[in-house]
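Protein modeling request. Please complete all fields; requests missing the sequence field cannot be processed.
Requester role: graduate student
Desired output: 3D structure, token encoding
Chains: 1
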Amino acid sequence: MDTLLRPWTPADAPVILAAAGEEMMARQFTAPIDSLSAAEDWIALLTARRDDDAAYSFAVLHEGVPVGNVAVSSVERRHLTGWISYWMREEARGQGLATKACVAVSEFAFSELGLFRLELAHRVDNPASCRVATGAGFAVEGVERARLLYDGVRYDTETHARLATD
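Delivered output (166 residues):
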């Protein structure tokens, strides 16, 4: 993998803590990140998931500094599928980094993990995420009505997929 992506390290905990403090970012983490130790725990969880062949998360780098995350998770060996997710810190959005990271992690999933089908979804009210998905070669497959629930409000999601043969 090129210098755009690298696995998260414990030294990245301050970046994770800062990212978790940005508006709307708390939803990107499996538990609240409100301290350096919580950020370190999150990174340790990513390492454990990689060791279990369940998920592979990478820091997205800009000029050598982590500014986002991209992952292939829900790695399923029987059907050779995985789930792509991504987020970028506010200062790194709109620069094409998320799209490049999605392309890179997809190539990793196809070539290194041997997966065939990758899926992702985004809220329909998030056109920037849709641009990332389509820009990275993920075809629109449909809308899942009222898929997500945040703060008592249901949101539709649009599902995309990319195949190794695309």
